[in-house]
Amino acid sequence: MSNAKWTQLWLEYHKVEDITKPFAIVIDGFKKENRIIKSLICELKTGLEKMTGAKCTEEEKTTDGAYVVNIRKKEDLAKEGYRISKNGLSINVDSSDENGALYGVFEFLRTIALKKFDENFEKKCVPDNPLRMMDHWDNMDGTIERGYSGNSFFFVNNEIIVDDRTRDYARFLASVGINGVVINNVNVKQCASLMITDRYFDKLKELSDVFADYGISMYMSLNFASPIEIGNMDNCDPLNEDVIAWWKKKCKEVFEALPNLGGFLVKADSEGRPGPFTYGRTQADGANMLADIVKDYGKIIIWRCFVYNCTQDWRDTKTDRARAGYDHFKGQDGQYHDNVILQIKNGPMDFQIREPVSPLLGGLKETNQMLEVQIAQEYTGHQIDLCYLIPMFKEVLEFKTYCQKENDTVADVISGKAFGNKNCGIAAVINTGNDLNWTGNDLAAANFYGFGRLAFDMSLSSEEIAREWTMLTFCADEKTTDVIVDMLLRSREIYEKYTCPLGIGWMVTPQTHYGPSVDGYEYSRWGTYHRADHLGLGVDRSSSGTGYAMQYYKENADMYNDPSTCPEELLLFFHHIPYTWKLKDGRTLIQYIYDTHFAGEEEAEEIAANWKKLEGKVPEGTFNTVSHRFEMQIYNAKEWRDQVNSYFYRKSGIPDEKNRPIY
Ligand code: GCV
Q1: By the 8 A CB rule, do 32 and 44 touch?
Q2: Ranges of CATH 3.20.20.80 domains, the chain
Q3: Could you report the per-residue pLDDT of 244-272, keeping only the tens digit for each?
Q4: CA of 351 to the centre of ligand 1 (A)
């Protein structure tokens, strides 16, 4: 049996300083027996001892000749916020609650790891988003839907696992400020429906306790048809009194057994999942029914807006899946109860490499909203191809919705700044599994880390996050750090260049969602998604097409509606464009497609070659794993380049101006 243990990611705590003075930890105002304070002390001791070699003890009061880390309860700070300062031998970590204190301690440890311990400093930070969540798509048999880093570390053969790895995972989450985790797949099938029965309560309680030790609320995905699946009822109509009574009894059992559970996440009426539509009810009817019941326990219902008809006939040019979210939810704005949050994917389709921002974000003004992004890289390279996604998330957050005059960006909407909501925030479909490095590609951990940091502090730049993660993870020399940061920052555009041009999306192998298949759109048995013919390409979503562009507020609707003002990176998402169309830089559309596909593949080779130069500078295991992933990425990039270029050459009959080989 192998003794190999999973890695500690950015909590590796490399030795950075030799400090001869000891550290004393003084807890001032918090209860030492509090579970989060206990974790905090443990984290502080581990981190300080590993990074500085100094001894670290817990004391009742300040001791002479030692560094003193005062963990102080200060009511002037906002929820979960912290203020840390260092002045000579004295370090203060102030917060009004335990979560804030824990985040402050991790920030202090980060400061040392980033080699800034010698400086005096003062930092204050309050999380931007009330809810900062990771959503698992883990199944109870141990598989992970869209998981690319091994199997689940929560479930094996329909049993729940709680072990040292669970604790390490909770530590990682807390260290980047995550305060909620959904442990199971939104497609709640088979055994997973039984998670809300006493068959699993003991283990779930144990699991939720591990998270609670780190200030994290556990959530579960719920099967809307549970009354039928596990309750022997013949329907799950949300307005049926027997159904409501069943849920009341069920929630009482669940929350008495699992007091740390934060609530439920629900995928309804989508991709075969049951929901209120079956009974002629609205999404609001379904969500509110559950919300009213869990409200008695102070819990919330997170209801996904990924509701669409996956069997839509795509030959009908007025049909448009992109419209579905807004069409289903906008009409009920204001009807959702206070403890319902609508969770909205960043784009109107499904985590493509480039999509416009969903018009529901900010389109809803009287409903709690949460942004859902995906770091699992389902359509963006499966954690084989390098794709640092923080720049994409920044674009989404900074998007001006025009929902009001000021404070109208997506960041304003989801943080509650725009409309004053308390139940709101951001969630990521997580990219971890039981691989020893957690994320398959070691470099994909930058997305895991980066999402948490960004959810906490949306003002951080993509580069700041990339640099911080690289320094913490590798503790390498400046030149090595620069190379890795450069690779990360370029990776999304490189991936975009060799895959789908100008926002068109969906040219991916059906079902697996890795590798090219230009005609492969699987959500329709009829017709291609991209609507390419011998003259042009792209989906007409203007007012004369599907009308999707008109779902935005006027400023954005006008901009998207007209191909001459539509941002070029989204041109083919919104318009059907002739191959001979001149882009702003003077190139024709067809030439742009050829050029970017050649360039994307070349640039992938370039960053792979840069990685090769880091042999000996990063741990050998990491070097080898990432090198192997780059080999696969280059193979993938070549396939994309050749298939996309030859497809459009054959369709258009227009040769490459530069006469490069198009197979
Ligand atoms: C969990 C896409 C994915 C599905 C996923 C779904 C969703 O369709 O391919 O695997 O299901 O999104 O977000 O619910």
Answers
A1: no
A2: 133-467
A3: 999 999 999 999 999 999 999 999 999 99
A4: 9
